[in-house]
# Entry
Amino acid sequence: MSVPLLDLVAQYHSIQDEVLRAMMAVVERQGFIMGPEVAQLEAEVAKLSRARHGIGCASGTDALLLPLRALDLKPGDEVITTPFTFFATAGAIHNAGGTPVFVDIDPATFNISPRAIREAITPRTRGIVAVHLFGQMAAMEEIAPLAQEHGLALIEDGAQAIGARRKVNGEWRVAGELGTVGTFSFFPSKNLGGFGDGGMMVTQDDRLADRLRKLRLHGGARQYHHEEVGYNSRLDTLQAAVLLAKLPHLAGWSQARAERAQRYTRAFTGHADICPPAIDPANEHIFHQYTIRVPRRNELQAHLKERGIGNAVYYPLALHLQPCFAHLGYERGRLPVTEAAMDSVISLPIYPELIPGQQDAVIDAVLGFYA
Ligand SMILES: Cc1ncc(COP(=O)(O)O)c(C=O)c1O
# Structure
């Protein structure tokens, strides 16, 4: 049995009527730019993230770029982040005029290490971008006070973690709630995915929210008046309509992902070669990815491919080793936990529509390889 890494067609068929109705309402109205669905989705995502403001934008990448632009970085200003993430996290720092400073990760969760952040803070540090990788939140109870103590902006890259929660000092906190800005991606493969690109920023800060709203509209609140140079980075009304139709399903979908993760972990636990993903006990993990660590990873990948079992390596080359950042002077060996992760991780199919027979096929193929 072949099993795709992700099956968006199955998800679409389960909600086809609702989504098409929502889209057709926009089409019938021919109101594609900043229609009422955008403001509705902004309000819903702000509520979900327990933030005062939600500001839609064109992608999860722009959701990072705009708040970084709002820092007015000068050449040489540093922003600390993780090298074990999708490229956009660091690309946005660079494109906003900053220098990404890569620090190592926690070996269990793959999230940025608070101790490594502390050690990397210099007089040039202006901000931290913490990524909630694969669907579980970074250690916000340590990172947020660090940012506050040093007067740094804290951006939570929640592209993979919309609706994820973490017990912070005894209280449940949601991805995007505690940072200066929280960011989300609606890339189609995300837990809440649109029918194209889309993103959202959330913040508690009224003034910053105004600035971000301007930055996404060429730097002006009033048409044809521009206080600064911004971007065309609106969230399409059609995307907002799709996302509004999908949003009521999000909690159930994330729960279904977590159940499938549990089933994998039951099958892999105790196996000498397979290290299932660790869930930090403070976290409610929404399993955007189910990522195991294994020896002979590339051989396993070829074995799965031969059997039609979808899989992916997130991420095969950490960002501190990317050619475009060679000028920053990192070499292999500098961030050993990250480098061990990039050489050993592999992500398996996980989505709400994954049925037990498919999951068994994945499990059998992985176990079969190490038998
Ligand atoms: C951690 C992370 N940050 C940022 C992004 C960028 O989002 P987008 O693809 O919507 O630009 C993604 C996803 O693609 C991501 O996984």
About this structure: Residues 90 and 100 are 6 Å apart (CA to CA). The longest strand covers residues 125-131. The longest helix spans residues 8-29.
